[in-house]
Amino acid sequence: MERQSFVFSIFIHACALLLAAVILAPLLWLFIMSISPAADLTAKPLVWWPQSIDFSRYGVLLSSVENSAGAAFVASLVNSILVAGMATIAALALAIPAAWAVSRTPSIGWSLYMVIATYMLPPVALAVPLYFGLAHLGLLNSVFGLALVYLTILAPFTTWLMKSGFDAIPREIEAAAMMDGAGLFATLRIITLPLAAPVMATSALFAFLLAWDEFFYALLFTSDLRAKTLTVAIADLAGGRVSDYGLIATAGVLAALPPVVIGLVMQRALISGLTSGGVKG
Amino acid sequence: MTTRAWLLMLPLLAVMIAVIGWPLADTVGLSFTDAKLVGSSGNFVGIDNYVKTLTSSNFQRTLTTTTIFAVVSVFAEMVLGVLAALLLNQQFYGRTVLRGLMILPWALPTVVNATLWRLIYNPEYGALNAALTQTGLLDAYRSWLGEPGTALAALIVADCWKNFPLVALIALAALQAVPRDITAASLVDGAGPFARFRFVILPYLAGPLVVALVLRTIEAFKVFDIIWVMTRGGPANSTRTLSILVYQEAFSFQRAGSGASLALIVTLLVAVLAAAYAVLVRRTAGSNA
């Protein structure tokens, strides 16, 4: 690295501070709102730092007292986990064999590109028939129905990631195992899938985050606590007549926690997943 | 070999046909009828829905709003993202921490981001009003999301904040792939900072950035979540984008047929965008090879 002049170094540090402030200020404010007394948040001039720290809203939202705000929040939290979990598992179960097949038999690759092209489709183009279809199957306002619909988003995406993962595993290793007498499924189980474990984990995380984040289909296809997900519950709170802004902020913090923790811990894997997909395009 | 590959593809293809292929075909069918969401399954009306949609002033105004949102927010995200990446590629204290923080806005769920900014923009108690009046930049509190003049800009700021860090991370990964000896050689050759960026660094950035540009533009054109949570397309429809318009037509007004035609027009516009970009991607890839 070339030696930096003193002035340039000051400039760089100032820019870095500014960037850190831009990134952190809104997030910090969300957290501060969640621990400020309601009166501080509606005071003029606004109280930026609470006089007494108040964590009680977290208790309120995570309580399971019948018919409370907490019960509704916990139900939507459970629904989000169920829908995202089921959709992720189903997407991987569909994606892994398909991605391996395309990776090893490029001549059928065009079918994968057709699947990936569906990424461009705006969800509104499928919404009305999916609504009729779910109604017909009795799957409106059901976590199973919503998980099924989420496959429209998750399956193409995971297949795409898994394919680039399998491409990175040399087929010679598989050939060697087969030469030693292992059958196809033994080879896949003993050789290929363990080698693909990291990319499977990355794909699963991406899929889970996508499902956790989804709002449009959840808004359309769920109507009460039986299936409403967190994103819908939070939008309800934000658009409703809740007078305590701190409660809305608390719900936001809780909903953001799982993906933020995943993001921080898995940063390296997530970014390499994003950029490898990006570079290969 | 090929038969086995097709067998392994079969479950994925079957599900994709069930949840994407069939609904899409059904949307095409619906778009030629006057079907309602509840009750009437509708009569065949030919291309009436398309004619009505394309000539309606609502559609034209919404298309303009969507285009402004997509172009301005994606452009700002690209510029801010590249600037942040150039910064993160310099040496400074806390660099690793700052790089780590960049993942946070991306990880924050879209709906939480929208809710957060809605609270920040709150006309009576919001942090933006408080900060601007307390520093003397603003005389009286304003309703940022309640005035047609500021609502779209406020939305674009919220969208940029969430998305420029991802562009920055993608650009940073590309910057780190620039070989040291090339930048060193350009220094020896006397290239100034701008010449270095243009001729030495930009070629490495171009590929990943074009891909990010494509994906972000398509997403921005389909935008629904952030707008629904922050403004529902208001005030006075000043932030209504195409996806919001389709939602209103098909689900609020329950006009499934005309909603379907509108949805397909949006799909077509996105497909044209994607095709135009595919050409661009190929050209960038070609020039780098």
Summarize the structure.
The complex is a heterodimer of chains A (281) and B (289). Chain A has 281 residues and is mostly helical.
Quickly list its features.
A: 281 residues; mainly alpha; globular; B: 289 residues
Protein described:
The complex is a heterodimer of chains A (281) and B (289). The model of chain A has no long low-confidence stretch (mean pLDDT 88). With 281 residues, chain A is an all-alpha fold. Chain A is built from 14 helices and no strands. Chain A starts with 5 loop residues before the first helix and ends with a helix. Helix content of chain A is 76%, strand content 0%. With 289 residues, chain B is mainly α. The chains are: A mainly alpha (281), B mainly alpha (289). Chains A and B meet through helix 1, helix 4, helix 5, helix 6 and helix 7 of A and helix 1, helix 4, helix 5, helix 6 and helix 7 of B.
- Per DSSP E runs of 2 or more residues, the count of β-strands of chain B stands at 0
The percentage of residues in β strands of chain B lies in: under 5%
Task: Return the string of H and E elements of chain A.
Answer: HHHHHHHHHHHHHH
Provide mean pLDDT of chain A, rounded: 88
- Helix run count of chain B: 13
Q: Could you tell me which chain pair has the largest interface and how many residues each side has?
A: A-B, 97 and 99 residues
Q: Overall 3D geometry of chain B?
A: globular
Q: Helix/strand/pairing class of chain B, anyone?
A: mainly alpha
Give the helices and strands, then pairings:
The complex is a heterodimer of chains A (281) and B (289).
Chain A: H1 6-35, H2 38-41, H3 56-61, H4 69-104, H5 109-117, H6 124-137, H7 143-167, H8 171-179, H9 184-195, H10 197-213, H11 216-221, H12 230-239, H13 245-265, H14 267-280
Chain B: H1 2-30, H2 48-55, H3 57-88, H4 95-101, H5 103-107, H6 110-120, H7 127-134, H8 148-175, H9 180-188, H10 193-221, H11 225-230, H12 242-252, H13 256-288
Helix pairs in contact in B: 3-8, 3-10, 6-8, 8-10, 10-13, 12-13
